[in-house]
Design brief:
139 residues; mainly alpha; 0% strand; elongated
Length: 139
């Protein structure tokens, strides 16, 4: 009986692992789509979208921190920053999706490659988040 209980527990853990990989794959697809959109949508359209998303909130509270941050970011987004963000999203999404598909297909090399990629990408993302949202810019 203990082996049967272990098998059920192992099956549940494996199923959760597969679900987490599928969610990560969906996130990777969103990154790829976001990267493509960021690459092709003109700067003026980004500013119009930011204005549209924040105008109601700013009418209620002109000092709203998040709405003002969104507008400031959209106004100051340079072509270099936009290109770098698009490249980051595309490369990150493509690498993750490729490795997730390989893990789901039980390729033995994919597990260490996936862990290495995550080990490299997590600090990169943490650094980029800290650099793009400096606390000093908040009012």
């Amino acid at each position: 009986m203990p082996t049967q209980r272990f098998s059920r527990r192992e099956a549940r853990v494996h199923r959760l692992f597969q679900i987490s990989l599928l969610l990560k794959a969906a996130h990777s697809l969103l990154e790829i789509i976001g990267g493509v959109l960021l690459a092709v949508v003109p700067q003026e359209a980004i500013l119009r979208i930011a204005n549209l998303l924040t105008q109601e909130e700013l009418l209620e509270d002109p000092r709203d921190v998040i709405a003002n941050y969104i507008l400031r970011s959209a106004r100051s987004l340079s072509i270099d920053q936009k290109s770098a963000a698009a490249l980051f999203l595309l490369s990150h999404g493509i690498v993750k999706l490729f490795l997730i598909v390989a893990v789901l297909r039980n390729k033995p090399w994919a597990y260490p490659a996936f862990m290495t990629a995550l080990g490299l990408l997590i600090p990169t993302r943490a650094t980029s988040c800290c650099m793009s949202f400096p606390l000093a810019s908040l009012p």
